[in-house]
Amino acid sequence: MPSQTKRAKLACAPGAAGTGPALTDQPQPMVLSGWPDEAEPRSDPSRDRFRHNLSRIMAERKLTQAGLARTMHVSRVAVHAWIWGTCFPETSRLIRLAQTLNVPIGMLLEGSDAAPAPAPSNEEFLLLEAFRKLPNTARLTLLADAYELTNQASLDKLQAGGLP
């Protein structure tokens, strides 16, 4: 029978219930003064905006955490963590999230305060369709002209404002 009592003592960690008093010679963790208290997490405004925007967009689209997780190929726990602000999606997942929700990344990060892009007019739509039908050399020529006109307009604006 002595072997059975020996086995019972080895199965429990030192200081565990039923094995006697805990060891007091163990080194205690060092507490550094000046370190932030973990009980008071600091608020991150950008993370807070993101989580509120994500929650709002999901509610507008009637998406559940599980549904978004399936679509994004992540766990429901990951989506839950994004919504509660305990973690932030990495860049590639943030891009995929914006594509999945069909919103600009700025809408996720900044919210409805960001100015939405105006809908293209009929003329702009026709120009875009005509541009898409052009051969690449003609497209590049038009783009070069557009950049040159934009730069010239910026220079004219600076000179009119009295700036060098």
Structure description:
By secondary structure, this protein is mainly α. Among the domains are: 45-113, Orthogonal Bundle (434 Repressor (Amino-terminal Domain)); 122-160, no CATH class. The protein is built from eight helices and no strands. It is elongated, with a radius of gyration of 30 Å.
Provide tags for this entry.
single chain; 164 residues; mainly alpha; 434 Repressor (Amino-terminal Domain); 8 helices
Helix/strand layout:
Layout: H1 2-11, H2 45-60, H3 65-72, H4 76-84, H5 91-101, H6 105-109, H7 122-133, H8 136-160
What Rg do the Cα atoms give?
Answer: 30 Å
| Portion in strands | under 5%
CATH class of the domain at 45-113: Mainly Alpha
Q: How do the helices and strands follow one another from N- to C-terminus?
A: HHHHHHHH
Note poorly predicted spans: 3-22
CATH topology of the domain at 45-113: 434 Repressor (Amino-terminal Domain)
Based on the structure given, which CATH architecture of the domain at 45-113 is correct? Answer: Orthogonal Bundle
In short:
The protein has eight helices and no strands.
